[in-house]
Amino acid sequence: MRKLSFVLLATILSVGATAQTLIPKVGGTFSTFAASDDITGGEDFEFKAGLTLGAGFEIGINDAFAIQPELLFQQKGGMQKDDDVKVTFNLNYIELPVMFKYKFSNFYVNAGPYAAFGLGGKAKVKPTGSGAEISVDIKFDDEPTDEDAYYLDNALDFGVQIGGGVVVMEKFVIDLRYGHGLGNLYDKEDDFDNKFQNRSIQLSVGYRIPLN
């Protein structure tokens, strides 16, 4: 029994060792918030642009299937405006997705969970007419200590991602995916609908570096 277990482990490791690929990537995010009327006041959030930067580590299971954990720096947030003012929320996250990938020809589809940790950010308030733009720090903490900062309760975010992509010239990867946050940025309060979740579209270009 021990010998059989050792053989199976050695086989799994050898398969992984022959199909490991590092994929540095850079691109953009287009993000917004899904929020309740109690938070938005009836004015929905619009999409804003941000940066995504990091790397994935593709572990091949066979010719068709792979697992790809990633470590990313990602900017999310949203924009809200009316006739008088535009407010833009810019949030910085360290994100760890684990994507399960199915490949066919040069194309693939993938899906998986993610966890992210908020580093902070900025809220920018700009009058639509004349007037100077005001910038305020965004911090993650359920016990505010800085009167000049805007606070969100929860730094930890989690959710799912789904998407697909194509490999060009056997080296370059163009990846498009949608991120659906499931964690609330505010703690629940009685008699208050606190839904405030991240939504994002991510477009990136990566470069495949085989490690075997």
pLDDT averaged residue by residue: 88
What is the number of helical segments per DSSP (H or I, 4+ residues)?
Answer: 2
Strand residue percentage: over 45%
Which quaternary structure do these chains form?
Answer: single chain
In total, the number of strands is 11
How do the strands of the widest beta sheet line up side by side? 1-2-3-4-5-8-9-10
Rounded to an integer in angstroms, the radius of gyration calculated over CA atoms is 21 Å
Largest sheet: 8 strands, antiparallel, barrel
- Taken in chain order, the helices and strands follow as HEHEEEEEEEEEE
Which stretches are low in confidence, meaning pLDDT under 50 for 5 or more residues running?
Answer: none
The termini sit apart by 31 Å
User: Helix fraction?
Assistant: under 10%
Structural class determined from secondary elements = mainly beta
**Global geometry:** elongated
List the keywords.
11 strands, 9% helix, mainly beta
Overview of this protein structure:
The chain is mainly beta. The protein has 2 helices and 11 strands; from the N terminus they run H-E-H-E-E-E-E-E-E-E-E-E-E. It has helices spanning 2-17, 37-40, and strands at residues 20-35, 48-60, 65-81, 85-104, 107-127, 134-140, 150-152, 156-168, 172-181, 196-207, 209-210. The chain has an 8-stranded antiparallel beta barrel with strand order 1-2-3-4-5-8-9-10. A hairpin with a 3-residue loop joins strand 3 (65-81) and strand 4. It is elongated. The two termini are 31 Å apart. The mean pLDDT is 88.
